[in-house]
Amino acid sequence: MQNSNIFDYINVLDRAADASWLRNQAISNNIANATTPGYKRQDVSFEKELRRALGNSKYESMDSKVYNLNPNDINPRVYTDAADYSYRMDGNNVDIDTENVYLAENQIKYNALIDSMNKEFKNLASVMK
Length: 129
What we know:
By secondary structure, this protein is mainly alpha-helical. The protein has one domain. It is built from 4 helices and 2 strands, in the order H-E-H-H-E-H. Strands 1-2 form a two-stranded antiparallel ribbon. The longest helix is centred in the last third of the chain and has 33 residues. The chain is elongated, with a radius of gyration of 18 Å.
C-alpha cells in the first residue's frame, strides 16, 4: 500500500487547535487569577515551534514542508510571561483588559482552525465520492 499522506494538513491543524485550546486555558487561568497577589501571567508558545518545524526554505512549497513535517515535533509550551514585571504593588502582572483581548483573539483563531479542518475533511469526502 502506498502512503498518500492525505492527513498531513489535518494533523498540523489538529496540533494547532490543541495549542489554541491550551492557550485558552492559560488565558482563562490568567483572568481567574487577575487579583491574586504574586500571580504571573502564563501564555503558550506554539507559532514559533511550528515555524521552526516547517523550516525556513523559501524555495520549498508549503505542501513539501508539511509532507516532511512530523506533527510530534511541534509541541506547545506553557511559559510564564514577563515574570519580572508587575502591574501592581502585590507582584501580579495580569492586565484583565489585555487578557480579554487575547481570549477573543484566540477564540477567533480556534474557530478558524476548526473550520479549516472541516474543509479538509469535506475535500477528502468529495474526492472519495
